[in-house]
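Folding Task

Wanted — backbone structure
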Amino acid sequence: MPPTASSSFRSVSDHLAKMAFVMTGELYRNSRALKQLRSLSDAGYIVEVWHLAGKAPAPPLPASITVHDLARPSGKGPLFFRHVDRLFRETLSDVHADIVHASDLYALAACRRRADDLGAALSYDAREYYPHVAGTVGKPWARWWWRHVERSHIGRANAVFTVSDSIADTLRSDYGIQRPRVVHNAPPTTLPDLANPVRSLRDRLGITSPIFVHLGQMKAQRGGPILLEALRRVDSVHLAFLGYGSEMNRMRDLARTHGLTERVHFLEPVSPDAIRDTIRDADVGITMLEDTCLNHRYALPNKLFDYIHAGLPVLGADLPEIRAVIARHDIGMTASPNHPEHVAEAMKAMLDAQKQSRWRANIPAARQAYSWEEASLFFLTGVDEALGRRSTVIKDPS
């Protein structure tokens, strides 16, 4: 029987294990990495992190976590990833650790080489179905390359993690490996104390109308234009984008073209720890990945769980993993992500007071089913087993 969220975790060994944690991207905007680091610290690990620094402020982290900022390499596409691999190889050349953790595919090759040099354990977080991400659509050579990279190194990993059952099953089938551990990207039930009070979304916007909120990056194929097209068919509703990304300027232009500038709001992202308090008074949370690649089809985006923990009913893309969570717990609706008229009808239906009441009554059970307290136990057990360490689950006396 798996451990429950009312349990805590402790690693048992004769020394404190040291991990080198390497990620492509900005740590302070990555809620999954931040949660993993805090859990590792709680379990007695000493962790050094290398990430590509950005502009986000650093949240509080335990003393056992040391973060090294690396300058983001220049270039785009293959050239960028070549520079990233070289940067990580050079950076890790003098690093000593018991386990080297690749937080994404783009760090995996460098992490594998350093783990081999050290005779250390290797862990890998397949946070996406990388050969089939949106960026490889229409680029068979890119799809082939990333599949080749993953195949070359994933079999060496002593522990592999991913975010959904569909990706876990596919990785096992693609590479003939043991099924990766599924670690849902759900937020913790209890959040760290924040230095400054958080203003809610409704307070920031100063409106009383219904608010639909979309968290996360505004990138191609994530449903932004479809949501704007749908909003034209729905009166009174306001749509708030809380994030940033390469599609932001296009989205602003579309909002003007559709005459929606008074009802569409583009807000700066907040830290992962502040999301819940920021969106708590919205009416509906949206995740509308377009069905354009297998990575989207198999995704369980962290925003889905953020909405659940904020107490919001969810309007989700009608994709297998997202649909399963929403239907299993009856906490919202799904709509075809490629048809604005379907999305508009779902938006209208989600304003029904009786449905809202039913969905909100079901959210606490969904929140209990998907929490970082639960997910972290599977992550930590995998790391411990990669090191050949024993671990134990300590029951919460409360």
